[in-house]
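Reference record
================
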Amino acid sequence: MTDESQIAPYGTWKSPITPESLTGSVTRISSVLVDDVTKELYYLESRPSEGGRQVIVKLKDNKDLFGKGWNARTNVHEYGGSCATIHDGVAYFSHVKDNRVYKVKEGEDPVPVTPDNDKWRYADLAVIPQYSYILLAVLEDHTKPEPSNVVNKLVAINTQDQSIQVVVEGADFYDFPKPSPDGTKLAWTQWFHPDMSWQGSELTLVDLSVTENSIIKVTNIRVIAGERKKISTQQPFWASNDRLLFLSDVSGYMNPWTYTLSTGIAKINTPNAVSEDFGEPVWTLGNSDYAALTTSLVVHTSIKDGRSVFSAWDLDKEIYAHLSTPYSYIESVKALSTTEIVFIGNKDDDSPAIVKLSISGVGHEPKYDVLKSTWDGKFPREIISKPQPYTFPVPPSNEPIHALYYPPHNPTYKAPEGQLPPALIILHGGPTGRFYPVLKWTVQFWTSRGWAVIDVVYGGSSGDRLEGQWGIVDVNNTISAIQEFTKRGIVDPKRIAMRGESSSGLTNMGALIKEANLVGAATSTYGVSDLLKLEEFTHKFESHYLDYLLGGPSSNVMDVYVQRSPITHADKIKTPLLIMQGLDDAVVPPEQSETIVKKIKEVGGKTKYITFEGEGHGWRKAETIREALEAELSWSVEKIIFATATEAKSRTKIPKHYNDLVEYNFLSWNPITRSKREEYGKIIVLGTDARHDIASKDKPFLLIRPTGDQSIMSSRPQPEVREAILRNLVRLIPLEERLVVHAQIQSIPSEYIVNGNADPTQPLMLTFELNSNNMSGLEAGLYAVSDPLSPRYGQHLNKSEVDSFVRPSSEATSMINSWLSSQGVQTEPTSSAGHLLTVQIPVEKANKIFNTSFISITHAASNQSVIRAMKYSLPAGLSDHMHSVRPILPPSSVSSRRKRTAPPETSPSRRDAIQVNDSGQGCDQGITLGCIQKTYNIPNDVAAQVPVGKVAMLSFEGEIPFAPDIAKSLKIVRPGINLAPIQIEMIMINGPNEVSDVNLTSDHGPGATLNIVTFLGINPHPAIEVHITPQDEDGAECAEAMLNIFNSILSNDDVPAVITTSYFCYEDNTDVTFVKTAKSLCDAITQLGTRGVTVLALSGDAGAFEGRGPTSPSTCPHATSVGTTTSSGAEVAYTFSGGGFSTIFPRPSYQDNAVKSYLDKIGSTNEGKFNSSNRGFPDVAAYGLNLWGVEDGEGSFQGLLLPAPQIWGAIITYLNTQRQTRGKSALGFINLLIYANPNAFNDIAQGDSNGYPVLSGWDAVNNLNL
C-alpha cells in the first residue's frame, strides 16, 4: 500500500474487475487430453462467451478441432465429465446438442458414430487398443425419463457402422471403463442405490474378447475390490497387463492400491495407510488424480493441509516421497512419457495453466514447465488478494472448521483507520465439496471493491460428519465460522452477506432460520429448499443421496425431511434473500425456488427472484454469469452498504387460466389455485398418450383435459412437452385473448386534428422500456455517494455498476424477445443496461401486435403531424415487466410555452453607456458577465484554469449556437480570453439511437448562443457538447425528446461532469404518457448522478401559475432546479421565475426541513393549488434576465430567461477542477450538499412574487443563490 492510496471506506472501492471483463473473453481449461498413440497434447476449453460451449483444442498450434456449431459436453449423471478421448489423431466426443458421439480429425468435419437417438447419452469413452474402431462407453438411456426408469450400461460403439452393443448392465451406475494394454481384460467401477460412488462401489474385472464379427464377449466377471455401503473404489488404470492400479478408502482415506492379476491379490501400495485423500468424490466423470509413467513409477496428487501436493511412488520398492510444488490445486493428471506428466495447475496468485512435470524417480527433484497459461494480463497482479487459511475447533467435540479468508485488497485504496470490512461468506456445494486456495477472479471481483471473502469449508468434505446430519452439522459450522470471524475482529459483524449454491442453499437458508441476525443479506443460487421435493423430482444420480445425508428415505424419517427443509420455516427468514435459478435445472428444479419465494413473500419477507432460461445446474453462458454477478453485487450493496435502501417491490403476477380448463403457471409448470387467477389464456390438455405426438409437431395445437384424469395437474410435464408448449404458446392463444391493455386514453385531445387511419406501410420507430431490476437500490446509492456525511461520499459508480441496477430481469428480457420474435420483429438494444429496446415496424404490423389502430393526427399549435393510437396492449405476463412503449399515446393536453421577453430594466441611453467588459461594475446598470463575476465573487483565476472533463448543454427547436456571435460576444465581454482551443461539439438527437453531427455555423438561435456565451464568459471550458433536438417545446413530444437526449448521454462510457438545460416541459399528471416519460427522465438523471454528473435545469419562465405550472426535469428530485433573478439595484426575485410543487414526484427527505418551514410561513396561500407533500422547486437561483450578448452581429441586452443554469454550471465546473487537482471526485448531485449548508449561499428574500411569496430561507421562487 503506497502513500498515494486513496482513503475510502471498505466496500466502496472502484475496481477494474468488472462483470464484462470476467466473461467477455474468459475461457476455462476443464481437462487435458493426451493421444494415447502419438502423445500429442489437446485440452478441453469452456467458453462462456460462446454460450458456454466446450471445445477440443490442439495445444501445439492452439487450433480448435471443430467449428462453432459443436459442443463437446455430456449430461450423463447430469453433471457430465469425460466427454472426449483422442486415439491416433482421431478425437471422439459427445455433442451435447443431440447427445451423439462424433469422430473428427484435424481439418475435417465431425462425423457421427452412434445412432440418431437424443435419449441416449454417452460418456467415459475408451478405445480398445487392438480394435481402434470400437469405443467403450457409459450409456445413460433416458427413453423413459423418470429417474427410476433411467438405465445405465457399459456399451461398445462400433464406429464403422454406428451399432451399439451392451457389454454389461444390471448395476445402477458405471464409470471408468479401462481395457488392458493387450485388450484381453476390462476393468470398471460400478455401484448401486442407495450408495453414491464414494460411499460404496465395486471394482470389477472381466476377460474381454472380440469376435471376427466385432461381437464383444466378456467372461469371468469378478469384483476385485470395494464393497457396497462400506468401501469405495475409483480411477482404475493399467500400469501393465498384470498390474491394475486403483484408489480405495478401506483405511478411511482414499489411498493408492494395486491389483496383481498373476497373484489375484489387491493390496495398498505402502506398508501403512497414508492419512491423505488421493482422490475426491466423483461428482463428474473422468477424475484423473494420478499417472503411471512406467510399470512401477507413479505420480499421485493428494490433499494435505487443504491444498494439493504431488508424491512420487515406486511400486516395486513400496516407497513414496512428496514432491515440492508451487501449485495449490492440481487436476487432470495424465502421463506424457516415461519421465513426464501433464496437468492443470492452479495457484493462489496466477490463472490456471497446463503444466509439464519432469521426474526420473522417487527422491528426484521435479522440474515444472508451463505449456499454456491462461493469464491474459487484463488485471494487474498487484490487485490480487491471497487466501489465508483459518481453522477453528467446534465444541463440544472440537472437530475443526476450515476456512479461507481473502482480505480486501486494492493498491489504489486503503480504508480509514480502525474500520472493519464487510464480508461475503461463500458456502461450497456437494455438500461434500470443498474450497481450495486458488486464484478465482470472481472472488477478486469482491476483494478489489473492499470486501473480505470467506470460503467456509464446513464438516463433510471428508469423512462421515454429514451422515444423517445434513442441515445440522453444516448449518452449525457455518454459524460458528461467521461468529468466530466477527469475534476476532476480522470483519464487520453488521455488514456480512452470505451465498449458498445447490446443496449449500439449504445450509445458507438454514443458518438464516436459526440465527435471524447472522448476516445482512443472502443469496441462494439454484439452492435446495424443499427436501421432499428434492427426493421426489431430482435426477437418478442423486435420487437416493438423501438416504445417507438424512438417515433414510422420507418414508422412514418424514419428520427429518420436513423439519430440515427451509420451506417449512420460511416465515423465519427475515434476512433479505436473493434467489437465482436456471429454468432447465434437472438437479434442483425451479419449482423449489418458486415455492419458497412465494412463501417468504406471503409472510412479508424480503426476497427477489431471478431466473435464467437455457441454464441448468450452474451457469455456463457469459451473459448469465455477468447478470448473476451484477445482481448479487447490487443486492448486497443495497442491503448492506447502502443502509438506507429499500427493496424494490416485485410486481410479478401469477398468470391464470379459464375456470373450465387445467390451470398451469407457465413459468413454473405448477398447478395454481383458482383463488389467484387473472385471465391469461386458454390451454386445453389432451392427456399423457398424446405427449410425444404433440411434441413432434411444430405448429399451433390445443391440449384437451382428459375427463376424470387429474394426474396431469400434479405432475411436471415431460421436457419435450414443455418445450413444445413454450414453442407454440404464443401462437396458440388468439392475440386478442392473451393481450391486456397496458395504457390508454379515453379520447383524442382537443388540441389535435384527426386525419384518419395511418398509412399501413408507414414505418414506426418505437422504444420499449422495461422495468429496471433495482432502481430503488440505485437511488439509495445516489444518496450514499452524494451525502457529505456518508462514508461513500464522492465514490461515484461507473457505467457497468450503474447498469447492474438498471438492467431488467432476465425473465423480462426473455419474455419480450420471445414475444416479438414470434411476431417476426427483431429488437435493437439502445441502452447498455438492456432496459431500452428499439424496433422499427410498419403501422400494419403494429396494429396487429399491439391490438390497436394507429391514426394520423396533427397538433394544431405546432402543425406537427404524428402517428399515434388511443391504447395499446401487451401480453399479460410481459405487461407487468414493461414501463412503457413510446411514442404511442398522444399527450392528453398541450399548451404553448411562451418565450418571455422581459421589459427593459435600463433606458436605452443608459445601456449605451454601460461598459459590458467592465468586471468591476455592479448589475444595477444592466447584467453583464463582469457584474456577474463581481456579484458572485467569482475568482479571477477561473478563466486561467484548465478544466477537467466535459460539459453538456441541451437545446430545443433545432437551435444551434452561432460561432460568429459567440466569438464577437466573448471578444467584447472577455477580451483576454483565447477562444482558439475551445471545442464545441454539436450533436443532433432525432430520436432513440438517432444521432448526427451538426455544423457550428448552421442555422442558429439566440438562446443557444447566449447559453454558450454565458458559460464561456465565466469559465472558458475546453470541451462543450450541445445536444440538440428538432423538437419544439410547444409540441407534443417534449419530454420524449428530452429523454432521448439524456439516454444518448448515458450510453457513453465518458459522461460530462455537468449538464445544463434552459429548456423544459410542463408537467401533466393527468397524462399517463407524460407521467411515465417524466419518471423515465428522472431515472436517467438518477443514473447520471450516481456517475458523478451535476444536472442543472431551469425552473421555468412563466411564474408558478401563469404558464402550465411545474416543469420537468426541474421537478425530478435528483436534478438541481435553477430559478431566475434580476437586478433592481440589488439582486431580487423575478416574477416569471418558475417554481412551486411537482404534481408527480414526492418531496425528497433532504428538502423536508426547508420546505416545511416555508409552508408554515405561507399558511393558506394558494391553498388547493398545489400538493404540499410533493417536491418543491427551485433549489437555487442566479441572474437570468436581460443578459448582454450578440445576435446576428449586433450587441444588446437580451430579454430571455435562459442563462441561470449556465452560470451555475460554469461555477460547478470550476469547483470540479479545483477538487480534481486535489485528487477528489466531481461534485455530482449537489442538492444534499446545498440543503445541508444553506448559510454558505446568499438568500434572496426580496423581489416580485411568481405566484408564491418571496421569503427568507427556502421559497418557491428563487431559493439559494451563489
